[in-house]
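2024-03-11 09:14:02 INFO receiving multi-entity request
2024-03-11 09:14:02 INFO entity count = three
2024-03-11 09:14:03 INFO echoing inputs for audit
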Amino acid sequence: MTALLEAKGLKIYYASPRGDVRAAEDVNLEVGRGEIVGVAGESGSGKTTIALGIMRLISKPGRIVGGEVNFDGTNILNVPEEEFRRDYRWSRMSMVFQGSMNGFTPVFTIGAQIDEVLKIHGREGGELAVRKLLRMVDLDESIAKRYPHELSGGQKQRAFIAMALALEPKLLVADEPTTALDVITQATIVNLLKRLRREMGISILLITHDLALISEAVDTLYIMYAGRIVEDGPSKTIFGKPKHPYTRGLLAATPTLQSKDITGIPGFMPDLANMAEMCSFSPRCPFVMDRCRVERPRLERVEGEEVACWLF
Amino acid sequence: MGYARFLVTKTASYVLALFASVSLLYVGIYPSLQKVIQGSANEAASDFQRTLIKDHSGMSLAQVTQAVATYKATYLNGFGFNQPFPIKFSLQIVNLFEFHLGSAYFLQAPNGSKQVLDIVVAYLPNTILLFTTGTLLVVAVGALLGLLAARSAGGMLDRSVPIIAVVHSSIPAFWIGFILIAYFAYSLNILPSGGISSVPPPAGLLPNFADLMAHMTLPLASFFIVNVGGFAYIVRSLVVSTMGEDFVTTARARGMTERRVLFKHVLRTASPSLATQSILAVAGSFGGALTTEVVFRWPGLGRLTFIAITQNDLPVIIGSTFVLTIILFLGLYIGELTYGFLDPRIKTGD
Amino acid sequence: METQSTDRSYLREFLKSKSGVVGVVMLVLLIATSLYVIIAIPQSEAYKWQNPAAWQGNPTSVPPAWVNYFGVDAPQTVDLSLNSWAGSSSSSSAAYSASVSFTWKHGVPPSNLLVVPNFSGNAYEVDVIWTKPDGNMVQIGLSSPVSGIGYDLTTASIRQGLVQYIQSQTHTLIESVGPAGELAALFNDDGPNILNSSVQQGTYIVTVQVVGNQALSLSNSKVTLLGDSYGTMGTDSEGRPIDLGVLAGLPWGLEIGVLSAVVGVVGGVFWGGLAGFFGGWRDKLLSWGMLVGIAIPSLAFIIAISYTFPLTLLTEALLIAVFSAPFFGIIARSVTLSIRSQTYVEADKAMGVSAARTFFTHFLPRLTPVTIAFTALSVSAGIIFGETLAFLGIEPANVITWGGILNDAISFDASVHGWWWWVLFPGIMIIVSSLPFVLVGFALDRVVAPRVSAK
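2024-03-11 09:21:47 INFO inference complete, emitting structure
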């Protein structure tokens, strides 16, 4: 069965006075039907850029420079904007943004906005439909009459997910859906996503910097660093035996209840406007070799997953 | 509910503010005001004396003088003269708010009355007519221009708004009137050069209305030209900054057309701030409206004040200022209530 | 450290703006001109401005001299000095006479004739014998003349003499004539149609005879043909040159603008800054104060106050500042609130830093760029406000202002008469003096604004 979503060689750059900032370089990604795929990395790694790119929401000064994004076999990068807006965006694939707390227009009620989404896509709106969606995300129907500022962060996030599901999309892109929420609410949201996949068969692309959060939620995991995928594969495999030094560092940096110390990864991400021909992680890598500094490693299949590292 | 509470607080705030303003005015004109009241007392006393002499010819001169003196003293006491300041202040302020504005030195109302209140009331409607129409035009067109400019982000309209704003900020309101008169009234001779109606006024409702429109055109144009640019610039900045907010990105993501995003979501969200800016614009443009009246000989309070200045008619100046203060307060008050109505955050009692 | 580099980058961005640079250049020119005016035109000129007698040698309400280049026949003023006096005197009487001639090549007469006899002693009579190119002579006389006074066509005896001459030509009885008729008598072709005939071009001879009861010392007497045009910007109805007024008004215009702006903006920024900084009841009180300030009709108030407390430059600037401060207060307050959401006031408090120090080290520096942008825009507003007040007749005593000149213009119905120079030039000056501040202010605003709202 073909994958629902397939990104091949996706390149997204941002113009800046210092030259093009290469936010995403040669990204290959696949999301199967009914699969939850995670994309993890630190701030600036390019994960949000990928999400926006897939939804074709990149705006000036950013632009998609190259690559394909195939949704159900069609390269959606070539679809005219008007057609994309009508037939794809939100109806086939929708997105929950980072800070969706601010995703609602402050002056309309939650219910009115969800209803609007239904109506402008030609579906039947109305109170019943809105209530059904709210129930799906475990929200009381009284939420429909409230304004965004009256809701808590968690409630807003769930309401937004309800709005993202309104048109029954096949793919839900969730960009940091739990940041700025408390731990308990975070777990609630993740469980909600898992339940939605179970009950609706929806595919989810889950983007986060919090590895601990997604450890038992995602089927496949992609690790991004400095705009590239550095490791990807079944999440069990990666969590069981992380290979790329960056992944290892990330996992080690995640504190658990048993942790005694906090370890970080020293150093900073390279300047994405000046990418040299070398492994981007090498300045910070504890296992760095001479070869790492002059030649960029490519993704290679290793033990059931892919890694881009000269150690393998 | 939220709006009720808002209403109460706002009203209290405005009432107090009006009182504070009038008190400030009072302090600023105190010596002149005392002079005016004294003059008023003198005039009332001589009128009384005349009446006494006419009607009660039985009284002796000493009795008349005594009666007049008592009369004058009572009159002045009513205004707090010869009494400690707090009492004087309260009495005079109360009299002001009761619109006991005295009588003019030289000017008179169209119906012949010399009462300042009558004079002011006679000219007030014309000011309201011109100012309200002008403000509505400026706000409506300015908001539209600003919106369209923000939408075209970098396009021709967007780039010309700052230029128009620059023009607006450096041209004095009254002077543009001169230019318009010189060109349209004298050079092209297609519009009247001033006043509110032709002499003699045309008969019939429709011709009368058309005549009024003809006379209003140039003053409105003058007021409009000077104020619309700055307001459009503010609206544009406001809309542009609102468009940078998160919910706009999500609105687009949800499949809305750019048009819907702008005219429904952005506009509605920015309305409270727009209302506030409109209020500020109204307050700021008031002075310009008054001087426009002078240039176009529009028979409103601005022109009345100007004439009173040339004639040094102090009671009229004071009375006119007082009434203008109340008008502006009323206008702003209505504006604020509208703002509260538009912002749902107020309704839900945040 | 950080503030320094941001200041420099602000400067760099500002210089990129063309309009901003143009504004600065204009500003420099204005300030230079203003300094020149302060030095070159002493205060005495301002007094002279109010004194009509000082301008009697100028034509009244005439356009600028350069209209001649545009095909308008508008002759300039011609001064005819009477220097060589011949005559005799005895112990009880004296009679002198002097002549001067001039050539007139214009198709229109001058706007006025001015006779200024200058003598010491007592004179009975001054007679003017006016010989036209065709040889005809007109005689007019002044009895009991006063030395130094200018007698023109409005003088009764001169008018009488000319009316008589016209009557002698037309053979009809004429009650009175206006200046046009008087000039016709002096300059037109003679005959029954003298009032409508054309101007004689050629050589005119003017002979002045002075008769006194004693020996007179005569010097500096003159006859002036007041022109139909004058100077670079024409004159007003008193004969005052508009260009002088326009120049003289510059320092005051700039002063009122700058003074009111600086006080108003600084006051407003502190007002709003402290309101946003403190929050709570102090904020509510200060914000309510801003409401009061905005809702007061400032123009009307200042007018009323000026009747009680006569205005000076300082008091007027202060009043304007007081009424503009609340507007800046509102903006400063919202900027402060957004700064507040980015800076940790609580952290400072916890560390024991005094409120004052926090305000000055964290908030004020961030408020500075906006403040500078406001100030520029506020100067232009102040200039316009001040000139508007002057236009309504409210200005300090003994200053020349553009608004004041325009006030005269409207009082004398300049637009009705078509005296465009009286209205155009002062108005343009107001624009020219406020425009650079606006340009600079907007350029600064563009530089500052994106950073203020940056999240």
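2024-03-11 09:21:48 INFO post-check: Chain A has a mean pLDDT of 84.
2024-03-11 09:21:48 INFO post-check: Chains A and C do not touch (no CB pair under 8 Å).
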